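Hey,
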Amino acid sequence: MATKEQEITQIGHSVTIKGDISGNSDVRVAGNINGSITIEGELIVERQGYVEGEIKTTTAVIAGSVKGNIDCSDKLILESTSQYEGNIKTKRLIIQEGAIFQGNCQMNAKPAAAEKQAAAPKKEANALL
């Protein structure tokens, strides 16, 4: 979600973009994009929105159609109206009933036990002198 200081870029219903998009703001897509999207923020593809290309973002909410791989460092939500074809790499994934998903998913979150073990201080072996 955008903070008060963060801007939101909106791609309207009648807009078609052929090319890559990158930036630090949230992006809301109601039109068509044919190209990659790389943002440090949230991507929202509305019901009538269509994206064909690679996506790399922090979080994404897909209600429209997307064709291409998605890499979300935090969370991806496929809403009930979404149609998605591609591979997903994310920490957290929510797929609502009615969503169409064709592809593979890789969850990159560490199991809780592994996180605790990694965070624990390492004990050094005492050498006998």
